[in-house]
# Entry
Amino acid sequence: GAGVSQSPSNKVTEKGKDVELRCDPISGHTALYWYRQSLGQGLEFLIYFQGNSAPDKSGLPSDRFSAERTGGSVSTLTIQRTQQEDSAVYLCASSLGGTSTDTQYFGPGTRLTVL
Amino acid sequence: DQQVKQNSPSLSVQEGRISILNCDYTNSMFDYFLWYKKYPAEGPTFLISISSIKDKNEDGRFTVFLNKSAKHLSLHIVPSQPGDSAVYFCAASAGNNDMRFGAGTRLTVKP
# Structure
């Protein structure tokens, strides 16, 4: 079956512009996660959705970052007024349930470059 | 706040030999640990996990060892194959959905 997909695969934007990153999880997966990986760093947790609600927004680095999930499926991560330090690979993952032991399946990521 | 650390950014081994990837953590509340493997231009894929109630978990050529007192885990791959060449991430969670990842170790297996 189809895995997690993300679009776009690459995004180059100018500092100060807004960007939207999209994630399509595996069908039937109730949990959805956003991470980012900056150069030379590990994966940094950003936000977690269970269904359409986000019980854990603790990882969002600033109020320029927001995310939503509609219909328990597609999620959009929005970064407003992008800064150069936002440049990273943004990864989305989904899991069948929402427990910590459920395997997370990752998408290929969106590489964001802020000039 | 690096709660999960992989201190070796890279490792190179000969095909057929053992690969040992190490990971240290600082949060004693972590109770579930995972290893993910990542090829270029792809997302990480789950490899193997271990619960804190165990000290070893084996799956084919892959074995994960957990030393809770030392807050250390390791992934052993034996025998190593060229197709194992990838970046390996260690991850840990404390029973919630905030999973912490290490920076990764790039493994190169030479034929």
Observations:
- The mean pLDDT of chain A is 91.
- The interface with chain B takes residues 4, 31, 33, 35, 40-45, 48, 55-56, 58-59, 91, 93, 98-101, 103-109 of chain A (CB under 8 Å).
- The longest strand of chain A covers residues 43-50.
